[in-house]
Amino acid sequence: MKGPTNMTVTITERAAKHVSTFLAKRGKGVGVRLGVRTSGCSGMAYKLEFVDSVDADDLVFECNGVKVVVDPKSLPYIDGTELDFAREGLNEGFKFNNPNVKNECGCGESFNV
Predict the structure, then answer these.
(1) Quick one: how far is CA 81 from the chain centroid?
(2) CA-CA distance, 43 to 34, in Å (whole number)?
């Protein structure tokens, strides 16, 4: 299923390149799944995993040549989120630029809306 027109999740070119490179090395996969789970000191945490198949009720957003798959229950919490990939010193990883976040914990692992 395509994503609803009034809700979106995007991925930057830098993050898309990282995902594409990893999927090529992995030898399989159709994109990444972005969702949320109840966890952490602020209530919710992101979950990000590579996707080998899309479920019938999944929403699919394609951006910069990469599919971002979201389950319908997570979408209201991550609507408008931009998935980025950043290197800061020796650390590198995905960053979630989510406009819905009201508070996040000091470690940046969990948030609430």
Answers:
(1) 8
(2) 17
